[in-house]
Design a protein that fits this description.
111 residues; alpha/beta; Rossmann fold; 5-stranded parallel sheet; 34% helix; 22% strand; globular
């Protein structure tokens, strides 16, 4: 049975209010439910029983270690198949490369 979009949800780690607003609008148009997470610390256990289809991570969030986030997702068996999308400022070319190497499925500019 094919999963309907109303059953699809994404876990979001974003603190920038303007960027979060853009994500909310895109998800609303797509019929995807969002669950915002305040930080990346120990969040994997929260999603292990009902894994999201994907994670959206603002790699530039102050105080967030984007490499610990991807590591925790990939090391949690129930979450290891989830797609992980990282967003960052377009000038952060080194971070883009490192995030892709660390296991983010897609790394894109916020702009």
């Amino acid at each position: 049975m094919k999963e309907s979009t109303k059953d699809i949800y994404a876990a979001v780690i974003v603190r920038d209010l303007m960027f979060a607003s853009r994500i909310r609008e895109a998800a609303k148009r797509s019929g995807i439910r969002l669950e915002f997470v305040k930080s990346g610390d120990g969040f994997a256990g929260k999603f292990a029983s009902h894994p999201p289809a994907f994670f959206i991570v603002d790699l530039g969030t102050k105080g967030l270690d984007p490499f610990a986030v991807i590591s925790e997702i990939r090391e949690t068996p129930a979450l290891s198949g989830a797609r992980v999308i990282g967003f960052l400022p377009h000038v952060e070319t080194d971070l883009r490369k490192k995030a892709a190497e660390a296991g983010y499925d897609l790394v894109a500019a916020r702009s």
